[in-house]
Request: fold
Amino acid sequence: MQQRLIPFLGLIFFPLAILAQKENLRNLTPRDVYRFSNVRSPKVAPGGDWILYSVSKADSVKDENVSKLYMVSSDGKETVSLTEQTKKFSNYNWSPDGKYISYFSKGKDEKEGSQLYLMDRRGGEPVQLTHIKGELENYYWFQDAKRLVFEIKDFNYADTAKTKIRKPYEIDRYQFKDDADGYLDNRKTHLYLFTLETKKLDTLTRGNFNESDVDISSDGKFITYASNVSATPDQNSNTDIFLLSLVLGSKPEQLTVYKGSDFSPRFSPDGKTIAIIQSSSEDDFDMYDLKQLGLIDIKTKTSKILTKDFDRSIENITWNRNGKTIFALVEDDRKQNIIQVDINNGSVTQFTNETGVYSSLNINTKGVMAVLYSNPYVPNEIYFSDNTKFSKVTHIQDAYLAPLRRIYVKGFSA
Reply:
């Protein structure tokens, strides 16, 4: 009789234990913002075996977000912390040979702004690679891992005085202020070629316009970029696409003359075509524009829009390594998924179709993908794919969600 009673008691207490665990769960509160980990910008290593990413958390004492850089193996089994001693960093990436991790951080000299650092992925202290005047805004690796293109904003001579009193701003621009930078001056951002071996910095562009949004051809012979060269850049969003040969003495060639926005140029793997994003409207500003996927034939200088009949905006475009399709992110009805666009006929196929949000899509030259994915129940985690099915790599949000009750969501249709 006693032996029969033990399994029976087990059936009673097991549900009670589960019920007790559920009763310990609580609702989300404002203070949970200090427990939340914001996972950002996964970058796949050239070999596809590791993924670089950052995690930031709000610090209530310092009243700021504190970020750290990590790398995780593509199978999710190993995680390595990389920047325990580095307070602030940005624009991290792999060198194309996979030997180094590069990022911006403040220079060691107190007068220096952000500079480029290299960290050996096998370990050791990061090395400051540059000592450049001006403001480093972005950088791009050549595939040979021997050169980079920098976006550098002109040096600010208004802050070179010995006193801490800045020279007054002279307001002579139509757009003299923005939310991110505050008051604006007339300094411009230009492109420069940096050689690692010699530390030599060569000027690629100059003049009265800003250049940004760079891509480098796989053979390293050309760069493409976006620039607004209209008469009144502050009064419109008319960026165009330019092509620049890196042969000494070459001048930039304007590839588009569309009055709307052309941006995000991306070379095809064979270097014969440039994919771009183009606004659907030629108005000076139109926040309701659709972002369309276009192609520029470099030889004929002709262009076409692939997604003219696709009633959704395209972003985060990346070539498939086969050169026949282009991956992109598309937002549609409370979700964002990955699509593929055929470059011959413009047909669109779903690569993913989840009730969630894919973001920060990153693809290496071998076609290996890393992406952030969240849904109504789980914040961003990193997922990995070898161009087939995505698998979850990180479980950073598990500890955050553990004490919380699962939220209730219900879809609707109009």
About this structure: The helical segments are 2-23, 398-401. The chain has two helices and 30 strands. Residues 16-20 have pLDDT under 50 and may be disordered. The two ends are 61 Å apart (CA to CA).
